[in-house]
Amino acid sequence: MVLWGLVLGALLVAVLGFLSLPGLFRQHRPQEPPLDKGPVPWLGHAMAFRINMVEFLRRMQAKHGDVFTVLLGGQYFTFVMDPLSFGPILKDTQRRLDFIEYAKELVLKVFGYKPLAEDYHMIHSTSTKHLMGGGLEELNEVMLDTLSLVMLGPKGRRPSASGWREDGLFHFCYNTLFKAGYLSLFGRTPDAAQDLLEAEELFVEFRRFDVLFPRFVYSVLWPREWRHVGRLQRLFHKVLSVRHNLQKEGVSRWILDMLQQLQALEVAPAMQDKFNFMMLWASQGNTGPASFWALMFLLKHPDAMRAVKEEATKVLGKASLEATQSFCCDPGVLKHTPVLDSVMEESLRLGASPTLLRAVQVDFNLKMASGEEYLLRRGDKVAIFPYLSVQMDPEIHPEPTKFKYDRFLNPDGSRKVDFRKRGKKIPYYNMPWGAGVSMCPGRHFALSEMKLFILLMVTYFEVEMVDPDAPVPPVDPRRWGFGTTQPSHDVRFRYRLRSAE
């Protein structure tokens, strides 16, 4: 036993020594950004970064300025915090800073899908075709019909549905948008009640995966959790299998188009199933949480709620439902809602926190707006975190922590796009969808989903907080950097259909 203890101890020392080599031997070179390797070899600042990314980056920026390189779990990340200097990173046309290779690694790990070289172009081209213009209008019609099914049931408004119902606001928004999005994109059967039951069961499993997602990406799950993630992955591959879903009616043209192209490239059906899982996550992992923040802010700001209701009445008229009716709404009105547009943009400014990453393919000379130049080392990652550097910048957005529903409106009611820093107009004044090559290709559909949901809620329902004095919950710090943030706890609310007039 003693001998084995000595052997295991020696192996542990050897492994730790090997892992710590990058942290031990890397030295700062002339022209490189300030280097901060942290307190622990190899791990560097990984623990502090995972515990609270926002507070960590604030400390680093205060210590080092607008550009700094940190060691996180054996990899070096250079964070650029000056939004006036984003252009050379986001507009790099020579692919010296690559997004695609990093994304391939991530989707293989998280969804089990092994991307093809053609995938990036395929997803963007089909999204442009089906999630914008006429394709988006068609999908919005489907979404309206599916929201009616989810929110009112298979038979429309029930005579007994006028009583108050209570739920957690985050759960309600996430549950509703997930089920409506899933059924709109992946199809339905003639049995609407069974479709709703299947969508509800799938949402429960989706949330289990969602809760583990941040630590899964960081590879810090317990052994039992790794097994649980594996089970969930297999479940989604089965439920979203091509064989199962192509038997349904109304699978969206967006999904069908992508699957047909994968088939033409002779991608195995099992890999197509994993592709479907990836697209479900991409399309539904953020809309529910983002809608929660929007509705939460409206409930806490009566002036904003009043302005949105007035606009909804203007574009929809006074709407009410008779028994057995479904929602009656022309999705075309979504083009004429500047107040709601500003509300959504402000909610996303406060609630969205994506991290934009690029892999440095060759040594890269980054010229800052200040005139300073920094050498980024090949093999490192360069990162932009717009939540801190743009969305919370008080020079760009005065009183940045406050919700101002008209922040993105000019006095004449048109959309405001003129935001400045150091006297210069800033092109990236709000970045909830990312930017450049990594900009979300489905953003138009996602925004339409959320706006349609909010319009229906303020038009057809009475909505109020159970406790009017309950504050807006803080962000769960584990969700920083992963798209739309989530609250640290849910808030109870109640809702009921407006009586027919």
Automatic annotation (TrEMBL):
Primary site of residence: endoplasmic reticulum
Signal peptide range in chain numbering: 1-17
Subcellular location: Endoplasmic reticulum membrane
Its membrane topology: Single-pass membrane protein
Family, similarity comment: Belongs to the cytochrome P450 family.
Keywords from the named record: Endoplasmic reticulum, Heme, Iron, Lipid biosynthesis, Lipid metabolism, Membrane, Metal-binding, Signal, Transmembrane, Transmembrane helix
Source taxonomy: Eukaryota, Metazoa, Chordata, Craniata, Vertebrata
Protein's organism: Echinops telfairi
PANTHER family listed in its UniProt record: 7-ALPHA-HYDROXYCHOLEST-4-EN-3-ONE 12-ALPHA-HYDROXYLASE, PTHR24306
InterPro entries reported in the protein's UniProt record: Cyt_P450, Cyt_P450_CYP7A1-type, Cyt_P450_E_grp-IV, Cyt_P450_sf
Highest taxon listed in the record's lineage: Eukaryota
Gene: LOC101641635
Name under which the protein is recorded: 7-alpha-hydroxycholest-4-en-3-one 12-alpha-hydroxylase
Cofactor(s) this protein cannot do without: heme
